[in-house]
Specification:
Layout (H helix, E strand, L loop, with lengths): L8 H44 L3 H4 L3 H9 L6 H13 L4 H9 L6 H16 L4 H6 L6 H7 L2 H7 L5 H13 L4 H9 L2 H7 L3 H8 L8 H5 L2 H6 L12 H16 L4 E12 L2 E11 L4 E8 L5 H17 L9 E8 L2 E7 L5 H11 L3 H15 L1
Helix pairs in contact: 1-4, 5-6, 12-13
Length: 381
């Protein structure tokens, strides 16, 4: 133990930083375990009801919708209940780890624990991990997955049907301390297949980890699932770097200062497409044009994926957020990176003869935005 009386100020500062970091990490892991255990247990309860519920036939395919309506909480929406059921079915091997975790928490009712233990015993003997069934061995322990990966990580793995492929990404995500975005990127780039085809598999994985984005405890805290679990509002979830956040502040002010009928609606506006969360960077409504304006800012060079994403956002707005009398929405994409500047308007489905010329009168001029971008680049250089 350090003797506080003889400690110098710089040593004290380092000690306090170490204490703070250690307990922050412990808190993040604790939140992660509670979120994961809750979601698995809810999925277990739903599945058990579907098998044995007395009135299950009365609801049929509408069970989850009816359940979400009866619960009436944002964090337990139809979308999430469906996801939790999928989680339980995809990760039966977590049963023992979660059962032990729940047993350590006296707040979970004893009848529930007893029922869960009985189910766990059956799972351990009848429906063990798909990996164990197919390979007669466990590639990674369920306890390690439960302790090391956040639920947001696990969501990225739900689409993987091959148990070996799933185990591969679990192992690499834990070893590489991958962020959720990094895990998604590696899955989307087929790292598993590329490594399998590579003669030097260690080198393939080593290259994948060069420059890989690491997990930060703030990623756990900012997860939409954590915010919902803690009862916080989803608008408080921010997926921005410090630079992007500063640019967004100034851009929001810039758009409002232009006048031209711009009314601010939301920042990091969350939408759900195919059971996945997406976020509009900035959402405005223009009362002169009677249309929504979606503004996306990318602190990097433009690529086709950014255009496809904005196009998807605009189409989602058209289908789900337009009110009677509204004109079609407009998307504005800004990209900036060391000498690269791009302003792109996209208005899919708009009759150019009717709308575009009118829109251009009230939307910010392209040169105005480019001038703003140049000033912001100087401000942050």
């Amino acid at each position: 133990m350090i003797r506080l009386k003889s400690m110098k100020l710089n040593v004290l500062a380092n000690e306090i930083k170490a204490i703070n970091e250690s307990l922050q990490q412990s808190a993040a892991k604790a939140i992660n375990k509670h979120v994961t255990a809750r979601n698995w247990l809810i999925g277990y309860c739903i599945f058990n009801y579907e098998q044995h519920g007395e009135d299950r036939a009365a609801y049929g395919e509408r069970t989850l919708q009816a359940l979400a309506e009866k619960i009436g909480q944002d964090g337990l929406s139809y979308r999430n209940l469906k996801l939790f059921r999928q989680f339980y079915l995809a990760f039966p091997e977590l049963s023992s780890s979660i059962s032990r975790f729940l047993l350590s928490d006296s707040r979970i009712g004893q009848p529930m624990i007893a029922q869960l233990e009985e189910t766990v015993n059956k799972l351990d003997t009848i429906r063990q991990s798909a990996i164990a069934q197919s390979m007669n061995e466990e590639l990674i322990s369920p306890e390690e997955v439960f302790s090391s990966l956040s639920f947001t990580h696990i969501v990225q793995l739900l689409s993987l049907k091959d148990p070996v492929e799933k185990a591969f990404y679990e192992i690499q995500a834990i070893k590489g301390i991958w962020s959720v975005r990094e895990l998604k990127r590696q899955i989307d780039s087929n790292l598993y297949l590329r490594t399998g085809l590579s003669r030097n598999k260690d080198l393939s994985v080593e290259k994948a980890n060069v420059g890989a984005e690491k997990t930060d405890i703030r990623d756990v805290i900012r997860s939409p699932y954590t915010f919902e679990f803690l009862g916080l509002k989803s608008k408080e979830v921010v997926e921005e770097s410090d630079l992007e956040s500063a640019l967004m502040d100034h851009l929001q002010d810039f758009m409002l200062e232009l006048g031209n009928g711009f009314c601010f609606e939301a920042r990091q506006k969350r939408i759900v497409i195919d059971d996945k969360y997406y976020f509009y960077d900035l959402l405005f409504y223009n009362r002169i044009l009677h249309c929504g304006v979606i503004l996306e800012l990318k602190s990097k060079e433009l690529d086709y994926a950014d255009m496809a994403q904005l196009n998807m956002y605009v189409n989602y707005y058209r289908a789900n957020m337009m009110n009677d009398g509204d004109n079609p929405p407009v998307g504005i994409l800004l990209c900036t990176e060391a000498g690269q500047e791009m302003v792109q308007y996209t208005s899919p489905g708009i009759d150019e003869n009717v709308f575009v010329s009118t829109y251009m009168l009230h939307l910010p001029d392209r040169e105005q935005i480019l001038d703003w971008l140049r000033k912001e680049s100087c401000r942050n250089s």
